[in-house]
Amino acid sequence: QVQLVESGGGSVQAGGSLKLSCVASGLIYSRYCMSWVRQAPGKEREGVATIGTDGSKLYADSVKGRFTISRDNAQNTLYLQMNSLKPEDTAMYYCAGRYGGCWRTQFDYWGQGTQVTVSS
User: Fold this and answer.
1) How far apart are CA 68 and CA 13, in angstroms?
2) Tens of pLDDT along 9-33?
């Protein structure tokens, strides 16, 4: 069965950094468009960053210049390097995968999430 397992969340002060990881199993990882999606309490889910099967990347305006998404297809792992963290980055962060193109709006698989808390 397919599993996406996130790790790396935690509590940091504003201006700090965290690196999230998401290990995938049970799927042909290289064929999946992968994304990081976050959800804060009382707010809608927000796409943070996406990396395509060709390595192309997209970022939400709110994280451009501060977050970097990457993938290691040999290790079936997705990463999110988060620098200059702000209190408004506080949320549960999920990795999610879509088979094939990133143009698809529906995700096929989700991880269980990892909590990021940024204090001021």
Assistant:
1) 19
2) 999 999 999 999 999 999 999 999 9
